[in-house]
Amino acid sequence: MVLCEFLNQYFPLETKKETVLIYINNGQGRFSPTPTKPGTLNTMRILTVIYEFPPVGGGGGRVAESICAGLVKMGHEVAVLTAHHGNLPREEIVNGVHIWRIASFRRSPCHGDMLALGGYVFLAIPAGLKLIHSWKPNVIHTHFAVPSGAVAYCLSRLSGIPYLLTIHLGDVPGGIPEKTDYWFKWIFPFTVPIWRSASKVIAISEYTRKIALLHYKNLEIQVIPNSISLQNISWKEKQNEKSPCIVFAGRFAPQKNLVNWVRILSQLKDLQWTAVLIGDGPLRSEIESEISNNDLQKRISLPGWILPSEVDAIMNKSDILFMPSLSEGLSLVGLQALASGLAIVASEVGGFSQLVNNGVNGFLCPVDDENAFVTSLKMLLSSKVKLASFQRSSFALLENFDLTKAVAEYEKALEETVLSKDNKKQ
Known about the structure:
- The structure is a single chain.
- The protein is globular.
- Helix 1 (2-10) runs parallel beside helix 4 (145-159), helix 4 runs parallel beside helix 5 (177-197) and helix 7 runs parallel beside helix 8.
- The protein has helices at residues 2-10, 59-73, 114-135, 145-159, 177-197, 206-215, 258-266, 284-293, 308-317, 332-339, 352-355, 370-382, 384-397, 403-425; strands at residues 20-25, 31-36, 45-49, 77-83, 91-94, 97-102, 139-143, 163-167, 200-203, 221-223, 245-249, 274-278, 300-304, 320-323, 343-347, 362-365.
- The protein folds into two domains: 2-227 and 403-425, 3-Layer(aba) Sandwich (Rossmann fold); 245-401, 3-Layer(aba) Sandwich (Rossmann fold).
- The protein is 43% helix and 19% strand.
- The strands form three sheets. Strands 5-6-4-3-7-8-9-10 form an eight-stranded mixed beta sheet, sandwiched between helices.
C-alpha cells in the first residue's frame, strides 16, 4: 500500500474528459485504433485485473474468462490485465475480450511462486495506470484478493475508479491451509484494506463466504456461484461397454491429495478401470513414484498441463470424477463433471456439497477415510446400472449452475459498483 501512496504523490494520474483510443479487432487478426467515447452505464467499460488467465492458471482463471466473455456478449467492453508466460501473445482479442499480458517472472503455467506474484503486483500497477489513462474504464473487476486485489486497490486509490473483488477459496485464511496458512501469517494485515476498500465483494460459493466472514467481520459478501455455459450441451448416454475411466484435473498440489488418490486406486486392482490424472505441479515426481511403486503405469496416464479444450474432451470420454481434496471452494472441475455427465466421488469438504447429492449422483466421503473412498468407487465400478444412473443425475444438476444467470448477476453488481462512485460524488 506504501507503493500506491508514493505513486500518487509523485506521479498523479491525470483524468481528462476527452475522446480516447481503444483497439478493436479489424477482422484481419490485427489491431486498429478506433475512437470511442468513455464507457457509460448502459455500456460499461470493465478492466479485469487477474494474475492468471487461460491458458495460464487453473479453475479461477477459467471462471474469469467465461464471465468476461459473457459480459462482452451483453454489450460491454472488457479488457484483461494479466501475467505473460512463455510464447503467449502480449496482446490479443479472444471472444471479444481484449487481453494485455505483462511480464511477471512467471516460470510455470500451472504454478505461480512468490517471485511471480510479487512481480505481477510491481509491474501491473504502472501498466494498469497507463491503461486507465488511455482507455478510461468505468469499473475494475479483480479476481483473487492476493495478488490481483493489491493491484486493484492501488489502481482504485490512484484513479478513483471503484473495484469489485471476487474471492476464491485461496483468498481466505484457512481456506487452503496447506497452501496459504504460512503466507497469511505475514500478509493478513495487508489484505484487510483490500477487502474493505472494495465497493462489492463476491464469493464463488457459500462455503467461501462463511469462512471469509470469520476473518473479515462485518463485511457484506454476496455469493455468485461458479457456473458453466449450458450452450451446446446436451445429454449423451455413456457407452459402458469399455472399462470405466476415472479422471482428475487440476494442480498437483498438496491440497488435491493426489498421492492418496493413487493409493486408493491401488486397492481396486481387481476391478476393470483406467484413469487419467490431468495437470502438473510440484508433486508430480512424488505422484509418478507412487504410480510406479503400485505398478499402475498401464492403468494411469498423465497427459500434463493441457489446454482447456483438451481437458473438456477427456472429461467427455470419462465416467467418474475422483477428487479426494483436503479443501475446495466450488470446483470448476466439478461443474465440468456435471456437464460431461460424470458420477462424482469426492471429499466431504467445501463446495462439493453443492455438486453432489450423496447416493444419487455421487458419494461424499470423510477426507481421512480411505476405506470410504474405496467402497464408493467399488460400488460404481462394479455396477454399470448404478454408474449410468449416477451419470444421468449429475447432468440433471447442471441447470443450477447456468453461466447466463451468473453473468447477469455480475453485470448488476458491476453496475451497482459504478453507481456507488457516482453516489459518493453527489
